[in-house]
């Protein structure tokens, strides 16, 4: 199990930024704007929140270099990105959104 104490992202797979949508708060927007960025978020009617925009490759701030993904606004990234993958739980088996989604679906079926 991974916890906030032992988790280190060493995959550089970018799956969290390709498949998941990052909610942004007013403070996140202010911080990212202060860093010089504009037009980077939009309203998501499904989750009823502002989220970082996505393009064909995923999050607009996701960059790929030498086969590894990274965040181009890492120092000012949204709070939810800073907490990921421990957004809803203190322990996770896997940080990939697709795997986490399947785990949550299975747990809901058992309830």
SSE layout and pairing:
Blueprint: H1 15-19, H2 26-34, E1 41-44, E2 49-52, E3 54-55, E4 58-59, E5 62-65, E6 68-71, H3 79-83, H4 97-110
Antiparallel strand pairs: 1-2, 3-4, 5-6
Secondary structure category = alpha+beta
**Largest sheet, strands/sense/barrel:** 2 strands, antiparallel
Number of helices: 4
Helix content: 25-40%
Could you name the ranges where pLDDT drops below 50 across 5 or more consecutive residues? Answer: none
Record field, number of beta strands:
6
Widest sheet: strand order? 1-2
Q: What is the arithmetic mean of pLDDT?
A: 89
Beta-strand residue percentage: 15-25%
Question: Given the C-alpha coordinates, what overall shape results?
Answer: globular
Radius of gyration: 15 Å
Order of helices and strands: HHEEEEEEHH
Distance between the ends: 22 Å
